[in-house]
Amino acid sequence: MALVAIGIGFSSQAQLTGMTPAMGNRGQTLPIIVSGQTGAFQNAGTQVDIVLKQGSNQMHSWTSSGSVTLNPDIINVQVVNSSTISGDLTIPGTISTGFYELWVNAGTWMSRMNSFEVQAGPATGSTLNIGGGQPGTTVTETIQWAGLNITTSDIAQMWLSFNGQTITSLSNASVVLKNNTNVQVDVNIPQNAQQGYWSFNLLTTQGESYYSPASFHIDQAFSTPEADLEPLEAYVAPNPVRENMFLYIREEGINNLDLRVVDINGRLHFEGNVEVGESRAVLNVEDLASGIYFVQIMNENSVKQVIQWVKE
Questions:
Q1: What is the assigned CATH class of domain 3-119?
Q2: C-alpha pair distances (Å), 254 with each of 157, 232, 251, 276
Q3: Residue 300's pLDDT is what?
Q4: Could you name the CATH architecture of 229-311?
Q5: CATH class of the domain at 126-218
Q6: Do the domains 126-218 and 3-119 match in fold?
Q7: What is the pLDDT of residues 54-99, one digit of tens each?
Q8: Confidence (pTM)
Q9: How far is Cα of residue 221 from the mean position of the Cα atoms in its chain?
Q10: How far is 301 from 224, CA to CA, in rounded Å?
Q11: What is the pLDDT of residues 5-18, one digit of tens each?
């Protein structure tokens, strides 16, 4: 939707005071907060329009009565109070990097130049201890962020994202291993959360933004007894894979495990059993379409580990 189709004019511009977070990576979904002068949004209950623009590149949302969105780049736009608007921003994967101007129409146009930076940083690799939970429950999850060296004081915010929406009800983030790559966090899964595979997101106090592959599975049938919370010694190779994927699993005290291969939308493509030991299991995935998949390693109908892999 072109900017001219929604703009009424440029009367009485007011300075926005900020946008948080102030940067994100292409392909990432962020829970954004737009702040303005006191009282700036007090008459904006029926129409709020947010535009991030860089020339012809635009990320745009238009909400009516705080609920209806006409463009998928920014959804769930709400007037929090007279000085704050919130929403979920999904940065298109192919949009240009650089700084974007922020425009807000709340009966009066307001702008703040160079308020948001789009970076090209790819998703960082990660593995999960539990790998998911049921809607309406609280799960204590451990995320191993590959290639990061962080401390608790480096963590500004963590959230989950899926299908353009976010879950921000995460708390008690702490670094749990001495190598400073494992972060433990309590995930309060909303009762109405969409079922599917969500990505973890991390914002540091230095303004760096990271997100993991979609690997946190929210499902009504998800079950993980406390006895099964210890992660397995398991990995897949090669990754990405074209034809044969080798799965290596070693677990003492367990003779066999069940495997499920699902895609990013939760569709089941393979289900079977594998003996546990130092040897490898081979899965032929040649007939699968290119994309992101997950191997769910299960024991007695409980998910013990989820490993993400890519089919070329």
A1: mainly beta
A2: 38, 11, 6, 7
A3: 62
A4: Sandwich (2.60)
A5: mainly beta
A6: yes
A7: 888 888 877 655 555 556 688 888 888 778 888 899 888 788 899 9
A8: 0.67
A9: 21
A10: 9
A11: 333 333 345 567 88
- Contact status, residue 51 vs residue 58, Cβ threshold 8 Å: yes
The two structure tokens encoding residue 280: 């490898």
168-214 tens-digit pLDDT: 999 888 888 766 678 889 999 999 999 888 888 988 888 888 887 77
CA Rg, the chain, in Å? 22
- Domain extent listing, the chain: 3-119, 126-218, 229-311
* DSSP annotation string for the chain: --GGGT-----S-EE--EEES-EEETT-EEEEEEE-STTTTTT-SSEEEEEEEETTEEEEEEEETTTEESSTTEEEEEEEETTEEEEEEE--TTSPPEEEEEEEESSSEEEEEEEEEEE-PPPPPEEESS-EE-TT-EEEEEEEETT----GGGEEEEEEEETTEEE--EEEEEE-STTS-EEEEEEE--TTPPSEEEEEEEEETTS-EEE--S-EEE-TT----GGG-SPPEEEEESSSBSSEEEEEEE-TT--EEEEEEEETT--EEEEEEEE-SSSEEEEE-TTSPSEEEEEEEEETTEEEEEEEEEE-
Cβ contact 25:120 at 8 Å: yes
